[in-house]
Amino acid sequence: MSLAEEMDTVTGESAGSVDRHATSRTFESTDPATGAVVGVFPLHDADAVGSTVEQAREAAASWAALGFDGRRQRLDAYRGYLARRLHELADLVHRENGKPHADAILEISLAIDHLAWASHHARKALGPRRVRVGLLAANHAAYLEYQPLGVVGVIGPWNYPVFTPMGSIAYALAAGNAVVFKPSEYTPAIGAWLAAAWRAAVPDAADAFQVVTGFGDTGAALCRAGVGKIAFTGSAPTGRKVMATCAETLTPVLMELGGKDAMIVDDDADVVAAADAAVWGAMSNGGQTCIGVERVYATAAVYDRFVAEVTAQVRSLRPGSDDEATYGPMTMPSQIDVVRRHVQDAASAGARVITGGTDHDAFPGEGYVAPTVLLDVPEESAAIREETFGPTLTITRVRDAEEALRLANDTSYGLAGSIFSGSKARALDLARRMRSGMTSINSVLTFASVPALPFGGVGDSGFGRIHGEDGLKEFTRAKAITRQRFALPTNVMSFHRPANTADQLARVIGMVHGRHR
Ligand code: NAD
User: Fold this and answer.
1) How far apart are the CA of 231 and the centre of ligand 1, in A?
2) Model pTM greater than 0.90?
3) In the UniProt entry, which residues are flagged as the active site (predicted)?
């Protein structure tokens, strides 16, 4: 029996039967392509969230006590379980989020790879180590370790409903925390499936990863539930609300927010490859990708060829929910209005709409947006300044890569970006100066598939990092310990120190540091 069938009691009418934190109110999630109900879920209120967190707190102690090896063994069992049920989960992702099955497979595969990396690198990144003591504590030993925070609350979005929350969940668990996850109200079945899979694969630590379902109120209750940290992934406006709520209890936050990522196409770029990457980066997942390409700045030398290539490639795309569709419906219906406003605003400001657009043909059937390419969009337009989060792309002609970089950086966001260039040195220089947390050269989105690399943004794209060693440390507190190995005849930190101690110390400091000018 599939896990989804076993979970029918969760997702069906009798949701309460497996909801151990009883609540009588429920809500539905629906298939964005058909409107069919995918499942019915408990609307967890503050009491239910509070008792889930308490249960997770108890589990956290035994989960931490398992140590790195014990946790690794169980996280390995979890990833094995996910890998064996990959198609089943991908089917659910297709139904509830709308993305093509193949894209769901890619997303889940990335999440599994991160799980493996996190569990296998946690000891090296976080385990106890001795550090050098320096001059003033030469008679001591010093130890550093990264201890878990207890319970981590994860609040997730709907656009990558497996990969995105797993970037926090996997790393928080590997670091020794229990996790309570609040999936988006658009993808609760996927969240519930991930937690049910955990219970099945890791029965002896089942409460170390639990799910609560509901809307923003449930997320706010998680912020107030006394967790050790909130890992939030979502939009910048909601991120501000989450921070304000967490401020009430001084709960630390990790903010993974939206983006307005740019691609720079330089004079010597491989134009065909750049166009291929731009179209994928902008249109895959219906453009509902935080690190999707929303703006391209192409130099005058390549602009015409690049536009022609993008136009040709975009014509072969088709939104739909059948097996041949290249991307699916908009998961969140209200986003269509945002996309339409950005395109209309750009068109009325003089932009050229070369494919897609705002008319009826551009919205082929309810819930879909045609791939839309906009040229000459004024820099102050919403389509350049705000996150569009749809299958749209602006292409702007610039004099050279320096102008491209200046415009790419002229945004309140700063999540990621990409550079296409024939010169390694030039591309690396541009990448370093791009104001973003991540940049890929001659490809798009690649950094997300490298588990050792940190993931996160600057400015309105948030702060803190998931993935890599930084991502593991994000879910810990650094603990410093010193141990006196032997007593010195003179202890400078004692009221019994001789009167001349300070002079002797000043002489030593002068000898060691004074010669530096
Ligand atoms: P959203 O901000 O609307 O919602 C995110 C989550 O926050 C949901 O689970 C929601 O229920 C919850 N929430 C809403 N109000 C809340 C409140 N007051 N307190 C606590 N929780 C609350 O975002 P979304 O529409 O689900 O996702 C799309 C956004 O996420 C886009 O902006 C996208 O760029 C961003 N995103 C960022 C990353 C990243 O890693 N930086 C990854 C994926 C998506």
Assistant:
1) 11
2) yes
3) 256, 290
